[in-house]
Design brief:
This protein is of the alpha+beta class. It has helices spanning 18-29, 35-42, 68-78, 101-107, and strands at residues 10-13, 47-50, 61-64, 92-95. It is 35% helix and 15% strand. It has a two-stranded antiparallel ribbon with strand order 1-2. It has a two-stranded antiparallel ribbon with strand order 3-4. The radius of gyration is 16 Å and the shape is elongated. The chain starts with 9 loop residues before the first strand and ends with a helix.
Length: 108
Amino acid sequence: MIGAFKRVDRVSIAPWSRRWWALWRRDVEAGKDVSALIRAGRRGLPVAVAVNDVVSDIGMVPVNVGSDAWREWMTFYAARGIAMPVPGRAPVVFVAGSLPPLVRSREG
């Protein structure tokens, strides 16, 4: 049928993308199990999420893997008992700011 639209119930999120990290962050902060998300990322596979479950990636900024800022974020999450995943092929991770909240407040 011309002009008809197919209803989409799920969308695909690319591994290690800004939206992937926003999804990881939201689920981690909600105490949800993110192991399937991390496994898919390590395999280079996208994840499918319900359209109404797509999370905003506004405010997520890139941080180079191995940088001082990256280490601060790893420490920030580790202090909360959360192992931040390390992407195998991606040179950056996307986080909620260039530095974690406590570091930002110390540095002014």
